[in-house]
Amino acid sequence: MKITVTPDVFKLAQVFTISRGSRTEAKVLTVRVEENGVVGWGECVPYARYDETLESVTEEIEGLPAKIDREALYDLLPAGAARNAVDCALWDLECKQAGKRAWDLAGLPKPGPEITAYTLSLAAPADMQAQAAKNAHRPLLKIKLGTPDDMPRLEAVRAGAPKSTIIVDANEGWSAEVYADLAPHLVRLGVALVEQPLPAGEDDALIGMERPVPVCADESAHDCTSLPKLKGKYDVVNIKLDKTGGLTEALRLREAAVAEGYKVMVGCMVGSSLAMAPATLLAQGAMVTDLDGPLLLGEDRDTPLLFDDKGVHPPNVALWG
User: What is the pTM of this model?
Assistant: First the structure.
């Protein structure tokens, strides 16, 4: 078995801004696992919020033993981007070796398309209204907020897309007081979900707080070990492969979260169709699917995922799984 990791860069269709900063390209790592001439591949997006860099994640992957399987990988690497790319590459390898699709190996029903959110970049209210109007045909819009001036932005987006369902991602940008003040306005404007309103280390303030709009854990939820810390604070868990450390743990987390009464959101970092492909298995029946990474790119993999009015479709066998 041979494991290789290479950096890849995908230009974005336009500048993408959240409360933590702006970017013009998606920097990812592509991992290939080869065994007896068969190659499986996967992708991860190292994330600075979790102290990950392209270099540090590459070093983690290159430090793995020459022979590995998914269960051994779980004990060798922590939850995060490095384990994700290798785990997904191993899934793809197993599929090719067995001549089966990933959902068959996982014992899951054949997946279908799922409506995905489309993310509007953080900008001035007038610009966000223009973005919303341009994308008002989309059934589900996600707004990046998390600043002291969020209400004008939210009002502007609702004006630009009066019929779309709106979800809000504060990216840990609010205080408990700000969130409490905003909550009635979120209801008034028909917001369906709020992601991570408070910093992960300060979210105990959500305990006992009225949640008129469902609150989703993102930065507070990584893998199954995160679940006990979410009780009484959140209604929904955002499962991202780059947080769980791959599809294997993500499937476990989804099962555990549902068993404990949480709704599920399936999210992503800004990556290519290869990064989203395994997550389409998780997205089946989720409360919210947010796998719009490829829609934000100006370029993609050679066999990209299909996005149409039915949503994001499962991957073609030429892409993954």
Answer: 0.95
